Amino acid sequence: MKITFYGGAGEVGRSCIRVDGKETTILLDAGVKLAQQNEMPLLGKEGFGDIDAVVVTHAHLDHCGYLPHMYSQGFTGNVYATKPTLELANVIISDYLRLSKPKDVSKHGTEEMVRHHRFLDYFKSYRIGDFEVKLYPAGHILGSAMVELKDTATGESLLYTGDFNMRSTRLLDPAYTEHLKADTLITESTYGGDADVFPPQREVLNGFISSIKETILTGGKALIPSFAVGRAQEVLFILNDYMRSGILPQTNIYIDGMINKAMRIYRHNVIYCRDEIQKQILMSEDDPFKSKFFHVVKGRQERGKIASGNESSIVVTTSGMLKGGPIVKYLQRSAGDPNSKLIFVGYQAPDTPGRKILDGERTIELDGKQVKIEMKVEQYRLSAHADRQSLMRMISRIEGLKNVVIVHGEPQKIVEFSKAVDKKYKVYTPSLGSSIEL
Ligand SMILES: [Zn+2]
Ligand SMILES: [Zn+2]
């Protein structure tokens, strides 16, 4: 088996891994890296002419955003993933195309991409050429999967985690870790650093809720930037729960950007959520997806009114790292108000405005305007990823494991994590564009 890293090696973004079996070639993920200039996987001179199929782990752009580019350039293989992944991918890819307008993507290519969608269920074995493919729940976002590949021609096996979470969340069960078996593990390492120890979830939640309560009581706005898919839905469910139980004062929760569209896909794929959520919908009058506290912001005019009004409220909106999106508008208006708060709940990539603010910068350029941040800034790790200890636990759960390949992490985290992995495994920290032969 030969594995080539077109992206997501030594970085977070543009995950794209080529796996050459004896007869069949599969691409695991096809993501983009959103940066000042968006970066694409480095496919090199092989291109994708000889790739038989793509398997996508989940609907975040760093794992699926490259698909429309591939189909616009003539890729004809199928793209395999769970049903919610492909449905959510459609939503976030169309948003990405609308905002980024990449020159090498055509309408025809995007249609071809959708025509080549093939749904896979968790836990079932499928054949793609010589590969046997099986998906397991990854606990990261709705439909997210870990991919097991077995080359039937050689008997070699590989497990690719994609992004995963070992703790259960409001909406999802944790990553599946029973009876996993593989020769090689390719694992993410977003929070694999020595200092990446997540405090107990309860503690984080308490801090988050009392911070929001304080903001509401002092008449400010709580701005929560979030990816459209994943954190946003979790945060909305948490807020709804605490408001219903009376712990949080009742206030409007404004939902802006693509979050509501993604929410609808969560709702109609509720069978992929935890049992409790399914029961809640079936057995009670209250549909948690349609809380009376949620208000979907319809368009620019309403956004402007909410952003500049004095109403104390909670706003959950995109983009998660403050690189454009409706959050910019809210932030420009609230930044100078010391009673308001900017609350980070997700990963902030280097060089994004979100990361700069977290690192202490208080004058930030947003949408071409210099904005002085006088509002409070806080961070709560409601992360959808595994921390160091959970990453280690995943490794220890895999039977027959020989090789551990570390991807999807900032360089320093990968170095730290690789040193911590048990010496009985052969550890690889591939660089961008490199290959390993196993
Ligand atoms: Zn992700
Ligand atoms: Zn990712």
Plain-language structure description:
The chain is of the alpha/beta class and 438 residues long. The protein folds into 2 domains: 2-195 and 384-437, Ribonuclease Z/Hydroxyacylglutathione hydrolase-like (Metallo-beta-lactamase, Chain A); 201-379, Rossmann fold, CATH 3.40.50.10890. It has 13 helices and 22 strands. Strand 20, helix 13 (411-420) and strand 21 form a beta-alpha-beta unit. Helix 3 runs antiparallel to helix 7 (259-268). The longest helix is centred in the N-terminal third of the chain and has 18 residues, at 83-100. It is globular, with a radius of gyration of 21 Å. The structure holds zinc ion (2 copies).
Average the pLDDT over all residues and give the rounded result: 95
**Spans where pLDDT lies below 50 across 5 or more residues:** none
CATH structural class of the largest domain: Alpha Beta
How many helices? The count is 13
Quaternary structure: single chain
Number of domains: 2
How much beta, percentage-wise? 15-25%
**SS-based class:** alpha/beta
Q: Which outline best applies?
A: globular
CATH topology of the largest domain: Metallo-beta-lactamase, Chain A
Helix proportion of residues, in percent? 25-40%
Q: Tell me the strand order in the biggest sheet.
A: 6-5-4-3-2-1-22
By CATH, the superfamily of the largest domain comes out as Ribonuclease Z/Hydroxyacylglutathione hydrolase-like
In summary, what is this structure?
With 438 residues, this protein is an alpha/beta fold. It contains 13 helices and 22 strands. The structure holds zinc ion (2 copies).
